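Sat 14:20. Reprocessing the chain from the morning session after the first attempt stalled halfway. Input below, unchanged.
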Amino acid sequence: MKTLQKKMTRDLQKKLLLEGNFIDVKEWQSININQEMYEICNINIEFDCPNTIKKLEKITIPNLPWAENHFKERINGKPLNPGVQWENWPYYYKSKDDKRFRSNKGILFDHTYMERFWPEKKEGIRYKMGDLNDIIERLKNNLFNRQSFLSIWHPEDQSNDKSNKRIPCTLGYYFQCRNNKLNVNYFIRSCDAIRHLNNDLYMTGRLLQYVAEKIGQNIKAGKIYVWIGNLHCFKTDLQYLKKITK
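Finished this time. Tokens:
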């Protein structure tokens, strides 16, 4: 599915509004909920990534300045947990969310994107854990390689050894360079259309711009291909969804 460049997040939200169905999933972010969700499944879109931040802002409509500040936190090179920007997220309610989403007496999150971008260089089954810099170096060494996948989902996320744990919504980013353009496939298993969609697409575009800049060699940001396994909102969000998609 191709989507319009202008305010394409609104197109996706409107698609949800028009084509969605109600389902009682019982959980959200690994906590029990007592209302239905409204969802569509298996969405594929593609769009050209602008080469300027301002143009990217216009088509993704992120929560600024938070989205840009958190993107910079993600690429800072350190496996931060909890970091800083979690507290500035517009939808974080500290009085209740610290208890719901943070372990170790409300200090650590079950995961952060900084930990997944920059894992400790521990030994895996055969090799050491890789990070974002490894992906950039792999592209610098061979622009046309087919192995440049930044994995956010780790094998430990498949484990059921711990109840009520939060696991990443993003699965990973696959980079391919062709015709002097760097493209990225963004895979996200589950996405809240109100609280996360805009920011997720914006930060994917910013990551593509960043990696292209780090590669150098006159490489520009190209296409963003997105697969969303499940796009959803709460039943109580529907009136707001109607309002913003008019």
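The chain is about 30% helix and 25% strand.
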